[in-house]
Write a structure and sequence with these properties.
It contains 14 helices and 21 strands. Helix 7 packs parallel to helix 8, helix 8 packs parallel to helix 10 and helix 11 runs parallel beside helix 13. It is globular and about 65 Å long.
Length: 484
Amino acid sequence: MAYTIEIAKRDLQESGIKGTFEVKEKSGKGKRKLYIESYGCQMNFSDSEIVTSILKKDGFEITTDINNADVIFINTCSIREKAEQTVRNRLNHFNGIKKRKPGITIGILGCMAERLKNKLLEEEKLVDLVIGPDAYRDLPNLIHEVDEGHRAVNTLLSREETYADITPVRLNSNGVTAFISIMRGCNNMCSFCVVPFTRGRERSRDPHSIVMEAGKLFKQGYREVTLLGQNVDSYNWIGEGKQNTDDKENTLNFAGLLALVAQVHSELRVRFSTSHPKDMTNEVLETMKKYDNICKYIHLPAQSGNSRILQLMNRTYTREEYLERINAIKQILGDTCGISSDMIAGFCTETEEEHKDTLTLMDKVEYDFSYMFMYSERPGTPAAKKMTDDIPVAVKKRRLQEIIEKQQSSSLKRNKLDLNKIHNVLIEGVSKRSDKYMQGRNSANKVVVFPKEHAQKGQYVDVLVTNCTAATLIGRIVKEQEIN
C-alpha cells in the first residue's frame, strides 16, 4: 500500500510546516497513495508525524499531488470557528475530487474528528473514516474497513496512550529542529476551550523515551528540540506501580525533565510549549537559568488582562498573579528572555474598561510577540453552555485590531533593544525572501536574517544585529576576533 503525507502551511492562527517522505511497500496488495493535510497547533503536526510512523510500518507510500491520491486524510483543529470552516471547505474540495475519481477514501483525524464525528460521517457524509487523537494505532484496521465497503470510526479517548514507543517520521524536516511530544491531553477546563473534550485527560510520557528520542535526533544532526504539551508545566511522570508523587525516586516533574533533556548534549537547544501561568514554577525558571542550551523564551498565554474575565474563562489566576509570574521570569532570567502570549478579544460580557485592562497588561509586560484572536464560541464548551456570546462582531474586530497594533508597537520596541548586540543563532535554512541570505533564531525565539557567506544549515553562528522590523532581526555574521 502507498500513501502520501503533506502538511500545509497556514497563517499564524493555523501555522505549520509542509513536508513529504517516502516509504516502501509492505505487501502485494498494490500500491495506493495517501495525501494528508494538517491544521492547528504544533501538537497536531507532531501527531501527523506519529501517524506517518504508524502507516509506514504498514507499507504506506506518499504523494504530494492530491489528484493522484487514493486516500486523503485531513488532520484537524477545532479550537476556533475559522479553523473548522477551513476544514469543511477542504472536505468539500476533496469530495469534488472524489466525484471525478470514484473509490477515493476520505478520512478526518484529530480534534474536529472527535467533536463532530457523527455529523461528518453520517449526516453530511463528507468522510468515510473518522479517527480521534488517541486511536491512531487503529488506522490500518480502519482503512481496511473502508476498503471492505464500510464507514469506519474510532474516537475513543485514553487515559494511558502517549505513543511513547513510536518514533515519529519527520515530515519534510529542515533537519535542524524537531518536536518531541512529552504529554497528551489537558486537565485545565478553560471555559472557552474544546481541548479537554477532544484530547482527554493529562498523561505524561515516560521520561526515558523522551530522552532517548532527543538523543537519537541529535545523532541524526538535529540541533534543537521543542518539548510539546497542552500544558508542559503540569508534566508529572509517576513510575510504574506508583500511585502518588511522595516517592521522589520514582517521579519527575517538568523541571527535572528539562534538566535531563538539556544534558543530552550541550549543543542541543531545548525549547518547550505551552506553559500555564498557574503551573510555571521558579524551579523551572532556575533550571532554564542553569543550562545555557535551554532557550530563554517562554510562551505564557494570558488570554485577558482583566481578573473578572479571567475568572469567567476559568483560567484560575488573577491579573496580579499573572504579573507576578512575569516578574519572576524577568528577575531570574533577565529582561532579554523572550516572552509571548495568547490574547482573546471580546470574550463574553467583556466591557470596554476590561478590554483596556488587556491593553495595559500588554504595556506592562511588553511581549515580544503574541497570537491574537477574536473570541469564537465553540459548541460544547462551558462558555457556550452557560454564557452568552454577547459582544458584537464589529466590536470584537475593533478590539482585536487595537490589541494587534499594541503588539506590533511592543514587538518593534523589543527588537530595537537587540540592535548593535551579538546573538548566537542556530541556522535553520535559507531565507524565504532571498537565497543570498540565511535565517535562524536566537535563544529568545526571534527570527534573525543575515547574508549567507559560507554559513551552513545546522551551524551556530554569532550575528551582530544592525537593523530590525517588528518581526525580524537583521544583521551579519561576526568573526571571533570581532567578538573579542
